[in-house]
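Late entry, evening session. Most of the bench is empty. Finally got around to the prediction I had been postponing all week. Sequence below, unchanged from the version circulated by S.P.
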Amino acid sequence: MPNMIGVRHVGLAAKNLAALKVFYQDVLGMTVVRETTADASFGATLFLVHPNGEEDHDLVFVADPKAAHTAFEVPSLAELKTAYREVKARGVPIKMTLNHAVQLSFYFEDPEGHLIEIYWLTPVRNLSVGLADPIDLDLPEEELRREVERTARRFGAAAPASAG
């Protein structure tokens, strides 16, 4: 397996996003970086970051329990592509590959059905919407970077072309 930075966030199933939002802001001092409504592609979600957090988000709450996951970060796009190829080569079915603009990721399940995300954090920051477009991680790196930039521009963020 490629170099993993480690577990960087978790997505937990939630019944009351509004109550969780107040709790995590008031009790733990977290900041909401993004929210989606029930009509979004993955349903209602709440993305939070710790004060001085280095990630796009540290915790995400999802209304759909099937979207609960553990996310592992890799340090580069090359490492993401390597991880993707190696997971597939081990015969593990890939559930989805997504361009979130703030990250490129792929998802698969462990033997007990827990959803796992492996992602590369792109240079894009501060998007106000939750988004995800399918993406082909078999594309060359330069094409993947262009796709991130296109998605970021579409939602009003800027991504440095040479970063990451």
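Two things to note before I forget:
The CA atoms of residues 13 and 88 lie 27 Å apart.
The chain has one domain: 6-154.
Will write this up properly tomorrow.
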